[in-house]
Amino acid sequence: xxxxxYIQIKNPLGFHTRAAAMISQKAGQMERTYGARLxxxxxxxxNRLPMSSFLAMLSTPVRDGDRIEVMVDGDExxxxxxxxxxxxxxCFEAEDAMQIDSLLQEASxxxxxxxxxxxxxxxxxxxxxVITLFNxxxxxxxxxxxxxxxxxxxxxxxxxxxxxxxxxxxxTYMGMRLELNGAAVLVNIxxxxxxxxMIGIVSILQDMREIDKLSxxxxxxxxxxxxxxxxxESVHDGICLVDSDGIIAYVNPAYERITGxxxxxxxxxxxxDVSPGGARATALRLRKPILGVIGTKPNGVRYVADLNPIxxxxxxxxxxxxxxxxxxxxxxxxxxxxxxxxxxxxxxxxKRSQKLDEAFNIIVGKNGKLKEALSIASKAAAADATVLIRxxxxxxxxxxxxxxxxASKRKDKPFIRVNxxxxxxxxxxxxxxxxxxxxxxxxxxQKPGKFELANGxxxxxxxxxxxxxxxxxxxxRVIEEKEFERVGGITTIKVNVRIxxxxxxxxxxxxxxxxFREDLYxxxxxxxxxLPSLRERKDDIPVLVEHFLNEMNKxxxxxxxxxxxxxxxxxxxxxxxxxxxxxxxxxxxxxxxTDKDFIDMDDLPMYIVGYKPENSTLINFDGGDxxxxxxxxxxxxxxxxxxxxxxNKAGKALGLTHKTVAAKARKYGIVDSNEQxxx
Length: 679
Known about the structure:
Layout: E1 2-8, H1 17-34, E2 37-42, E3 49-50, H2 54-58, E4 67-73, H3 77-90, H4 98-117, E5 121-126, E6 131-134, H5 136-142, H6 146-149, H7 154-157, H8 163-169, E7 173-180, E8 183-194, E9 197-207, H9 208-234, E10 238-243, E11 248-251, H10 253-259, H11 263-266, H12 271-274, H13 279-286, E12 290-296, E13 302-312, E14 315-325, H14 326-359, H15 368-382, E15 387-390, H16 397-406, E16 415-419, H17 425-433, E17 434-435, E18 447-448, H18 450-453, E19 458-462, H19 469-481, E20 483-485, E21 492-494, E22 498-503, H20 507-512, H21 518-524, E23 527-530, H22 541-556, E24 562-563, H23 565-573, H24 579-593, E25 598-599, H25 606-609, E26 621-622, E27 625-626, H26 629-644, H27 647-654, H28 658-667
Parallel strand pairs: 15-22, 15-23, 16-19, 19-22, 24-25
Antiparallel strand pairs: 1-4, 2-3, 2-4, 5-6, 5-9, 7-8, 8-9, 10-11, 10-14, 12-13, 13-14, 17-18, 20-21, 26-27
Domain Sigma-54 factor interaction: 363-592
Domain PAS: 107-160, 224-274
Protein name: HTH-type transcriptional regulatory protein TyrR
């Protein structure tokens, strides 16, 4: 049977330590006498705790004025309730025990605060296997609340823990890996003894996640320490670490090499003894950086040193000294100047290439002559032979040279462009081959030339026909022997460079006039590429116009949609002496000047609008009169056969059958009457 009764606590100390001890002892006696189970619950908490457990009673937060519910489960519950409630009330009536209760309560609160604030989880069981203490760390680790688990059996909350063995044998278990509500924990389990009598079990637990995290952090620190140590061991500069007392704590191998002193001769020595007036001792005293100190070591090596204090927060840890050999610094300065020159040149070339990309991100065109030239260029890219690109100004020779380079195995190496016509002849040699310091007035530093910058990559010699005769000889040597000397230098420099040359001049005539070396011509002309002029590829003009229209719309933020048929015919009719470059400029001008969303005849320059091809033969006024229809027909058939080369293709262009074209060609004597029809 089950029954309960409420009691109001009237004591300034609330449910204090002495009362908890007396009540738990009395409850245990009554349970044995009556065979009943007694429980206690703070009103409104919803938790039912075993009254015979001292730790459970002590952990119940009952204050002055609180109501507690006493519950009995067993035979004669009312009799048990009467006796137990009277006993509880008597525990708070002895005024002479107030001082002792205060001391006990202070000690209890102290221990409770300790248990609640330790970082380790603490779980305490009484001798009945009931959980009587579950601190905040245990709550954090397990995700369980103390209110929920206190009063519960360990078999429910702590399954698979070896607690029965502890109860039975009083054994202690250390460092066990167990689980608490799914959380992995490292547990120490020990019995609690009072005057050689076991009164419960305490388990101290650590969150394995925190332990693993600390272990990983420790591994990371060790890994970082090894990494930094390896870095210090491998750097080229000499490094010396001195602690705050002036004791040398570390030197790297480079420091040993530069100074000629061994590690075991330096470690543990005081800089105040080794060099009391030296830079390290001064930096230790001042605790400030000292930079650019130049000195000489006992082995005669001249060095420059930078010294910096080491602080951890506000704590002074010592000084680090970094030294370099002066000769090494000079070498590094020379190399830095070379790399600076290379970087400046490549930066300029990058800007140029970006500008080109805005106009020509690909080689645009479908003309047969252009495709044939690009086919040769593609094959040349797969080899490493010297290439000579021929073509009028503005036909895209540099664009093809770049395509050859970036399609070759040298694509990851530099592409260096030199315009031979743009550099004065007296400066051309120093530009191509570089110069040594002091080679001439103003040569204050050594400078690498374009061939040296292009080493491993490609050098593009534009306008090669403008190369002076004396430079032609030196260029021939570079091509044949792959070597040269800087201006003012005596050291022979070997290079591995692929040469692509370009010209718009007739080199064969120049050879006849003795202005261009024949042997150089044959060295350059290994793979010749002939780029057609724009007037030879007029079928590409509409494609190029559309390309420039799209590119310049993006560049200028405009939306010009199309070019009218009349304007396109005028563009195709024009001969374009400036080739693609001139077409690009005309398109840019039209897009800037037009106020419409299309380009028409009135947007084109007058010299293009009014252009008429020379020797126009379609319609002639001979002496002011028209020719006969048959004369016009004869000329049309003649021009069609000349352009298309067969009756079939000419017929398709004129809208006639090939038999009609063949018949008219024979009629006018354009072909022999016995000549077979060409398909």
